[in-house]
Amino acid sequence: MTSKRDLLVIAREIAGSARGSEQIEARVGRGRDTDVEVLRGSVESLTVAESEGVTIRVVVDGRQGVASAGSLDPEIVAATLEDARDNARFAEPDEFSGLATPAELGDASVPELDLWRDDLALIPTEEKVAMALELERAVLSANSLVRGVESSSYGDGANESALVTSTGIEAFHRRTTASLGASALAGPETDTQTGYGFSVGRTLSDLDLEYAANQAANRAVRLLGATQPKTQHIPVILDPLVTRTVLALVVSALGAESVQKGRSMFAGRLGEEIGSPIVNLIEDPTNPEAFGAAPFDSEGAPTRRVDLVTAGVLNGYLHNVTTARRGKTVTTGSALGSGVGARAAYLRPGPLSIEELFASVPHALYVQSVSGIHSGTSTVSGDFSVGAEGLMVRDGVFAEPVREATIASTLPRILLDIAQIGSDLTWLPGGGAGLTLLISDMMLSGS
Amino acid sequence: MLDEDVIRRTLGTALKRGGDFAEVFVEEKTSSSASLDDGRVEEVSSSRRRGVGIRVVVGETTGFAHTADLSEEGLRSAAEAAAGAAQGSAGVRDVGAFSRKTVEPTHEVRDYPESIDKEIKVEALRRADAAARAEGGAIAQVSASYADSRRRILVANSDGLIAGDEQIRTRFSVNAVATGDTGLQTGTESPGRTVGWELLEEFPPEQTAQIAARRALSKLEARPAPSGKWPVVLKKGAGGVLFHEACGHGLEADLVARDASIFKGRVGEQVASSLVTVVDDGRLAREWGAYGIDDEGAAAQRNVLIEDGVLTDYMWDLLRARKEGRKSTGNGRRETYMNLPMVRMTNTFLERGETDPEDIISATDYGIYCVALGGGQVNTATGDFVFGVTEAYLIENGVLTAPLRNAQLIGNGAEALRAIDLVGNDFDTWAGTCGKDGQGVPVSSGQPTLRVSELTVGGTGA
Lengths: 447, 462
Description:
The complex is a heterodimer.
Chain A: H1 7-15, E1 23-39, E2 42-60, E3 63-69, H2 74-90, H3 125-142, E4 146-165, E5 170-186, E6 193-201, H4 209-221, E7 232-238, H5 240-252, H6 256-260, E8 281-283, E9 306-310, E10 313-314, H7 321-326, E11 335-336, E12 339-340, E13 345-347, H8 354-359, E14 363-371, H9 373-376, E15 383-394, E16 397-410, H10 411-416, E17 418-421, E18 426-427, E19 433-434, E20 437-445
Parallel strand pairs in A: 7-14
Antiparallel strand pairs in A: 1-2, 1-4, 2-3, 4-5, 5-6, 7-20, 8-9, 8-13, 9-10, 11-12, 14-15, 15-16, 16-20, 17-20, 18-19
Helix pairs in contact in A: 3-4
Chain B: H1 4-14, E1 21-37, E2 40-58, E3 61-67, H2 72-86, E4 99-101, H3 118-133, E5 139-157, E6 161-180, E7 183-189, E8 192-193, H4 199-202, H5 205-221, E9 223-224, E10 228-234, H6 240-248, H7 253-257, E11 278-281, E12 302-307, E13 310-311, H8 318-323, E14 332-333, E15 342-343, E16 347-350, H9 357-362, E17 366-379, E18 384-396, E19 399-405, E20 407-412, H10 413-418, E21 420-423, E22 428-436, E23 439-447, E24 450-458
Helix pairs in contact in B: 1-2, 3-5
C-alpha cells in the first residue's frame, strides 16, 4: 500500500497537472473489505482485503480519454495520466463534452449524508464469523423442510472516495456497508427449491439475522411442489425485488443519454401520460436510507431529488453535464460512470398493506422472482418477456406454486397497468427500492 | 513477475501459523477499449491492474488476502493477514524448491493489442458504423466497441509448483437500432477470441455490423412468437449457452458438494440422449475461454463430462479435488487477484453428430428455429432455465418462414438433454461472460445444429 495520504491531496495533484486547454478529472478511492463464507458449520473462506484505485478523465478540445488503475502508487498514477492523455487523442470531438464547471452546477448544494459508521472498524473478525455461522444455523432451523444451506455469508466494507477536477470541483465522501446473505435449499433432491434471504445496513448491528434466515427459508419452502401453470391472461402481483428490477428498466430508459440517441421508448414523451394516475416515480439519492445514496455524482455534481413521473405524467429525464448541455437544461446530478443512471429510484408507496393488496383481486399470479431479464427485455423496444416463478393467489392468500413459466407484456403497458401500489417500501442492496405492485394484466405462458 | 526467493519467503510467512497449503497468485492485466456511438468515437479508455492474492488453507478453512503492493513488505503483510484469517494451529512448514511447470500454448497470438496503433482500432469502429448504416435507412442508431486485454499470471504454491501464463483476448461488438411501424428494435453481434487484433480478419467489422443490423431489421418484420410446447431447432453455436447454463453449472464440483446440483451422485447414469456428448476443453485453440494454465497453476485440459448420454465426471478445482484425493481438471479460475478461485467452465460444448443441418429443419413440421439466444438464467439445484431468443424463425412444413420476436425458451436442463433427437454434423461457438458468485470470467459455449423434440416457448403470440 502507498502511505495513507489524504485522497483529496492525491486527486488535487492529478487534476492540478492540467496544461493548456486540457481538463482533468481525478477520481481516487480506497477501501477495506471483509468477507466470510461458511458451509456446514465451518468457515469456508475469510477474506480481509484493502484496495485502492484511480480513474482519470482527460478532455482536450472536446476529445475524451479515460484511464484507470488499481493502485495509488505515484508512478502508476503518473503512467495512468499519460494513458488518459494518449487515449484522448484518438476520440472524436463533441461540442457538448467537457468537465462540469462550478457555475453549471448552479446553486445546488451538496446534501449532508452520513453514511459512515465508525464502529465497523472496531468489530472483531470473530464476531463477523460468528454471525455468518449463526445465520446458517438459523436458516436450517427456520423450517423443517429446509434440508441444507447452499451458502451463508457476512460481508462489510468501508470506502472513501475523492473527486477533483481542474475546473474547480472538489468532493469527498465515505461510506460503510454491511450485509448478510443466505441461500436455503428445501425439499427432496428430486424437487429442490432455493430461496435467498438477506439483510443490509451500514454496520453489523443494523443487520436483522432472523429476517434474512426466515426470508431464505420461506422463499424456498413455499415453492415446493411447483408445477407449470396453464397459459392465460392474468393479474400479476410483483414481489418487491421484482418491482425493483422492473423499475430499474424503466428508469434506465429515462436517462437522457438514451433518449437523445434515439434508444429509449420514452423519447419525445415529456408531458405525456406514461403511467397510470397512481404512479409517482422518484429518483432521490439524498435519502440516507437508500443504499445507493450519494451526495454527489460521478462528475462531482450534487445529487438531488428528481420527480420523473408525477401522477402518471412524464416530467423529465435524468441528466449529466453533457446531456444537459445538449438538451439545453441543467444536470440532475445523475452522472454514473461515464453515462447517466439512477442510484435510488422508487415508486411512492400506496395506501394498501400487502394483505389488502392481495385481497383486492379474486385471483392473480404472485411473481417471486424473474429470470432472463437481460435477454427478454429491452428498454429500446419496450419488450418484456421473462421467466417467472412464484405462487398463485386466490381469495387473498397464497395457493399453488408455479415454475417453468414466462410472463410477458411491454414496459410501457406495465406502467399503464399498475392497479395498486403497496405501502411496503423496502430499500434494497444495489440501489433503488421495491414494494409490492399489482399489475392488472399480463400474459402468463406455461402449458 | 516476482523473484522466486521472495515468493518462497512469502509462502513461508503464510504458513508460519500452520496450515495445509499456501498459494501466491500474481496477476498483471492491461486492457484497452474504445466506443463509438451516434456516429462518433466517444471515448477511448484503458486500465491496468497488478496485484497478488495469497491464500492459506487449514482444514476446511481458507484464509485470503490480497494487495496491490508488490514489495516484499507488502507481500509479507498480506501473507500475515491470510494466515491470521485461516488461524492455523500448529507447526511451521518449510517451502522447498520450486519445480517450474511449463505448458505448451494452444496457439500463437500474432498481433499483440499494444502493437496495433489506436488509430487503426478506432478506424475499425468507423468501418462498422458505416457498414451497419449501409444496411438501410431503417437503421436509426449504431454503437460499436472493441475491448482487448493482456493478462499475465504467475502461480506458486507450497507443494512446490510454479507456473505462469499469458492470456490475450480481443472482442468486437456492434449494436444497431432499427426503426419502423412496430417501433424500435435492436440487434447485437459481438465475436470474441483468445487472440490479438487478428480477430478482425476472422470477423471483419463490416460483417459483424451487417449481422447486428440485419438482426435488428428482421425484428421489425417479426411477429410475436407463438407460446406453447414446440420442437425447437437450435442453430450451430446459438444454443451452447443454454447447455452451459442448464447443465454445465450442475457439473461443477463445488455446486455438487453444496447439494445444489441435479447431477449429484449420478456419475455412470444415463442423463442425456445417447446422441449427446458434452465436453469442457480449456485447450480449444483461440476460443474465448481458452488458457494454458488455470488460476491455480493446473494445465487446461479436455474433460469429457457426458459421453453418449452417460455422466462421466464433474469439473474440479484444486481444493475440491484434494478433498476427493484426485487431480484438478484445470477448471480453477478467478476473475482477478482479488478473488478466490472456484470451479469454472472454459469452452463447453456438445460434440457434433451425423445429421445434415438442412435435414433437421426439413424433418420438422412445425417448430421454432433459433439463430441467436440472449442470456439466460438457471436454477442449478433444479436445472430449470429460461432463455431469451434474440433471433428466431418459424418452421412450417420443414421450411423456415416468418421471423419471430419476444420468444423465451423455458425448460429443464436434464429434460432438454434427454429430449435431443437430432444432432447435426456442423459446429460453431459463442463467446460470453459467465457469472458465478459475483465473478465474471470469459467462456465460450458451442454445439452443432440440433433439435429438442419439445420445449416450452413463452411468447406473446397465439
